[in-house]
Design brief:
Layout: E1 4-17, E2 20-33, E3 37-41, H1 48-56, E4 63-72, E5 75-76, H2 82-88, E6 93-96, H3 100-103, H4 110-121, H5 126-139, H6 145-148, H7 158-170, E7 176-180, H8 188-203, E8 207-212, H9 215-221, E9 224-229, E10 232-238, H10 239-244, H11 249-261, H12 296-300, E11 306-307, E12 313-314
Parallel strand pairs: 3-8, 3-9, 6-7, 7-8
Antiparallel strand pairs: 1-2, 1-4, 4-5, 9-10, 11-12
Helix pairs in contact: 4-5, 5-7
The structure holds adenosine-5'-triphosphate and magnesium ion (MG).
């Protein structure tokens, strides 16, 4: 049987406040198998980072995991204590956060921060940790690693900071890396280098959940992708199937918006409207108010996951139908 590195089933995360309860992660199921890179895409605010934080055990009150199961190589993560979880984080399970500046300590040199991660998880001397930190800096392509190791985060460019984050996430060779928008603030050259680095890690045995707005990067890098909308996965498929035969109108909209950027002179195909507030979701399908295929049933009933083909679940009553002209 193919080994599953990460398996999320029916995960829900809710926040309750005086303004009501909202559920940024609503019955999400996905898996990352050994040796795979899986993309998680969707518009801003759809719950991608919140899903990642739930896997890392980093949902803070008033948010909480209200249902579902998360396993890492068969181990039930939601059943672990905070102490057991912190032993896993950085060792078997790592995350590169969306904003490296807020995740690095501004008053500690970057090399030292990587050393501390090593010392926390491995029984090695300070000197050995220093050596391993220098090696991982070289490995992630930080030029003049010996010099950069002594720099503070603000002394490095955005690309180098992102590499430091990746070095820190990779140094203990985790089973799973969650990379949350790792290339968003970078120029295309640095982005290509970071994507190359992710491929190398995958080849060395780390499975990756790659969160991104950038469909181009997802197409280049991922084996499989999940599309998220308003807290739910609306479509999942192998990457070629998703790009060649998208079945959900939302996925088609996302791909159409990218494709039209390449057709100069024509109007930009965008998805009309915007993601609804999660505490005021419409009845029925959350995408219905923005969808050209929407009918009376979509406004009333929430679609369950159905199959658009082998290994291709989709959450839509009109999956695969063409929009009327
Ligand atoms: N600490 C928090 N407390 C309450 N609500 C939050 C908190 N963090 C995020 N949210 C809300 O949860 C929802 C999902 O946010 P999340 O950060 O997961 O989105 P995302 O898909 O990662 O978006 P982006 O692409 O902009 O990073 C959003 O509506 C956001 O406003
Ligand atoms: Mg995010």
């Amino acid at each position: 049987m193919e080994q599953k590195t990460l398996e999320i089933s029916h995960l829900s995360v809710s926040f309750s406040s005086w303004r009501g309860t909202f559920t940024p992660v609503n019955d999400v199921s996905l898996e990352v198998r050994a040796g795979e890179i899986v993309g998680l895409v969707g518009e801003s605010g759809c719950g991608k980072s919140m899903t990642a934080r739930a896997v890392m055990g980093l949902i803070r009150a008033p948010g909480k995991v209200t249902g579902g199961r998360i396993t890492l190589c068969g181990k039930d993560l939601l059943g672990l204590s905070e102490k057991e979880m912190s032993r896993l984080r950085g060792a078997e399970l790592s995350m590169v956060f969306q904003d490296p500046m807020t995740s690095l300590n501004p008053v500690v040199p970057v090399g030292r921060q990587v050393e501390e991660t090593i010392l926390l998880h491995r029984q090695v001397s300070r000197e050995e940790a220093r050596k391993q930190a220098a090696e991982i800096f070289e490995e992630v392509g930080i030029p003049e690693a010996e010099k950069r190791i002594r720099c503070y985060p603000h002394e490095l460019s955005g690309g180098l900071r992102q590499r430091v984050m990746i070095a820190m996430a990779m140094v203990c060779r985790p089973r799973l890396l969650i990379a949350d928008e790792p290339t968003t603030a970078l120029d295309v050259i640095v982005e290509a280098q970071i994507l190359q680095l992710m491929r190398r890690m995958r080849d060395q045995g780390t499975s990756i959940l790659f969160i991104s707005h950038n469909l181009g990067a997802v197409a280049q890098l991922c084996d499989y992708a999940c599309v998220m909308y308003a807290g739910q996965i609306v479509e999942q498929a192998e990457i070629c199937t998703l790009f060649d035969h998208p079945a959900h109108p939302y996925t088609r909209g996302l791909l159409g918006a990218v494709a039209s950027l390449h057709r100069r002179g024509e109007t930009l195909d965008t998805i009309r409207g915007s993601v609804p507030a999660l505490n005021r979701l419409p009845a029925g399908c959350s995408f219905a108010p923005r969808c050209d295929l929407c009918d009376e049933r979509c406004m009333r009933e929430t679609p369950a996951m159905t199959s658009a083909g082998a290994g291709h679940p989709v959450r839509c009553f009109h999956a695969g139908e063409e929009a009327p002209v």
